[in-house]
Amino acid sequence: MEITKNKVVLLTYDLSIKGPDEEEFELVEAIGEDEPMGYIHGMSGYPERFEDNLEGLKPGDTFDFSISPDEGYGQRDPEAVVDLPLDVFRVNGEIDQELIQVGNVLPMTNDEGQQMNGRIVEVSNDAVWMDFNHPLAEMLLHFTGKILDVREATPTELSHGHVHGNGGVHH
Ligand SMILES: [Zn+2]
After folding, report:
1. What are residue 63's phi and psi, to 5 degrees?
2. Of 21, 62, 68, 66, nearest to 146 (Cα)?
3. How far, in Å, CA of 148 to CA of 164, rounded?
4. What's the CA-to-centroid distance between 86 and ligand 1, angstroms?
5. Is residue 167 part of a domain?
6. Low-confidence ranges of the chain (pLDDT < 50)
7. pLDDT tens by residue, 141-156
8. What is this enzyme's class at the first EC digit (predicted)?
9. What is the pTM assigned to this prediction?
10. Residue 15 belongs to a domain with what CATH number?
């Protein structure tokens, strides 16, 4: 069976990324056959270009492709780096020093009530600088891997938008 819209795809992949100022790719994710990834073609949540590259492949086929930042997670937005008053992070008058560390990713809520992950990039005496850009923004993405299985999605999987069982959600 070929990969087309609404098929469940089970695959392995290695993802390597390279920033605009970097010379070499860095491996950031390795999904092997012992714990493959499953997604519904057309609903993966990955960039459209990712699914385009897998379209038509069959079990046993391998892939090797790159996705530019513009086809991937976009460019970095300098305005998505903001400073928040340290007081925002006070719980019962206390600052959790373990939590407020450069590099930590925290779920934050914006003015419209949307949840967004922010990565702490700097901490001063009265402010915390957070970067809300997607961690893969401005990165060139390189995927290699193998298609393990392609099958029809069940009606429940289609209504949930994710795969059940192997490579997916167990519930
Ligand atoms: Zn479900």
Report:
1. -140, 160
2. 62
3. 16
4. 38
5. no
6. none
7. 999 999 999 999 999 9
8. isomerase
9. 0.82
10. 3.10.50.40
